[in-house]
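Comment thread on ticket #2218

A.B. wrote:
> Attaching the input chain for the structure job we discussed in standup.
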Amino acid sequence: MAGDFLFEVEGKQFRAGPGDIAFALCGTVHTFQNVSSKPGRLIIYAQPGGIEDFFAELSAATENMSEPDLSIIVPIFQKYGLELLGPPLGARDK
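C.D. wrote:
> Ran it. Output below, let me know if you need it in another format.
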């Protein structure tokens, strides 16, 4: 992991940075956000496999977006049996 991330798993928030590990069971409500001023990197392990197809499709569909377009994003989530919840961590009242 590179960067400083805020994670939320089942309503509980915690920070993680280089060398840390975050864990969320399949089916739990979770989200994360890079909260540092530099680009961040994560290695995500998912079991069972297949979620990498979701990330690849979402990345390709949003590559040139300056603002999220839910009419494009939500159907991709639905295709993979996922639900987009919000608001994002960065848009919530502090």
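A.B. wrote:
> Thanks. Noting for the ticket: Strands lie at 5-9, 12-16, 30-34.
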